[in-house]
Write a structure and sequence with these properties.
The chain is an alpha/beta fold. The chain has 2 domains: 8-107, L,D-transpeptidase catalytic domain-like (Beta Barrel), CATH 2.40.440; 115-303, no CATH class. The chain contains 13 helices and 10 strands. The N and C termini lie far apart (59 Å).
């Protein structure tokens, strides 16, 4: 099938900070290309340009699906890309391709802390858990959510190391012990397959709960920050999600759920969880599981279990 000839593409929507980031680092290259889009590296920042199949991404520029299909069929890894801040365009000169942001809509999916809603958040634990269990998909690290919860409440006893490690993560999330936090994070960050390893997604989910409730310890958040900013501990894409999560910015799919959790009667909570779960190879399940762990840790610190 021949590829339609086209040299000008329009971004439909983009994270509002992206033009400034490009202006600070106007030259870059294509980091990776896949079916739904491509990642470009501009300085130390990674940016996704593609469909909104997985929602609005915190470092995303989203185009029409038909345009994305054309772009990924032409553009290759390591192709050079240039930003023209006057025209608000990205240029792939070797292909004669220009991508304009000038008529796109900007968005910002940033959560705000609402510690006064902490008790409301924990009240939705059972509803949240019911959706995860009915989904009947294990985490990317092979953990069955229902079996884990049966172990958690003491009805069964699982011998899997992965179960013990999850308890370590829950403990580390509210701990003030830097050594315990670091060793636990070193186990999870970068662990799992895909562009965003499952362990990273668990931590992103925890950070989403922390952003709205302040549930996690300062030491845990600082521990994540130290490893993400100063070490090559995970994939480039995983690192980017974590960097934004530390600033309270997440995909629109995660933001919708987190905001639902602060409401007394969130009518769309189940639908929003079901929207997140199938995303990525296992990222939706893994991020949701991280949010669940945050809710469990929060409830445990509030009432002892």
């Amino acid at each position: 099938m021949s590829i339609p000839h086209k040299d000008l593409f329009k971004v439909e929507e983009y994270n509002e900070h992206i033009p400034l980031s490009f202006s600070e680092r106007p030259e870059g290259f294509v980091h990776s290309v896949f079916a739904n889009g491509l990642n470009i590296q501009m300085g130390e920042g990674l940016f996704f340009m593609g469909t909104d199949k997985n929602g609005q991404l915190p470092f995303g520029l989203h185009l029409q699906t038909s345009d994305v299909h054309i772009l990924v069929s032409l553009i290759r890894e390591n192709d050079q890309v240039y930003w023209d801040h006057v025209k608000q365009t990205l240029e792939f000169k070797q292909h004669g391709i220009t991508i304009t942001l000038s008529k796109g809509r900007s968005f910002m999916n940033k959560l705000k802390q609402q510690p006064e809603k902490t008790e409301i958040v924990t009240q939705h634990l059972d509803a949240f858990l019911t959706v995860l269990i009915s989904n009947d998909e294990p985490t990317g690290l092979g953990l069955d959510v229902e079996q884990f919860m049966l172990d958690y409440v003491g009805e069964i006893h699982l011998e899997q190391e992965s179960v013990r490690r999850v308890y370590d993560l829950m403990d580390a999330a509210v701990s003030d012990d830097p050594r315990h936090i670091e060793s636990t994070l070193r186990y999870f960050l970068g662990r799992g397959k895909g562009l965003t390893p499952s362990g990273d997604d668990h931590v992103v989910g925890l950070l989403a709960l922390h952003t709205i409730t302040g549930a996690l310890s300062d030491a845990f958040v600082e521990g994540v920050k130290a490893l993400v900013y100063h070490e090559t501990i995970t994939t480039d894409v995983g690192k980017e999600y974590l960097r934004y999560a530390l600033k309270g910015e997440f995909s629109s799919a995660v933001v919708q759920i987190a905001e639902d959790l602060t409401l007394e009667n969130p009518e769309e909570l189940e639908d929003h969880i079901l929207n997140l779960l199938p995303m990525g190879h296992s990222s939706g399940v893994d991020t949701s599981f991280g949010m669940l762990l945050g809710m469990l840790a929060l409830r445990r610190t509030m009432n002892g279990r």
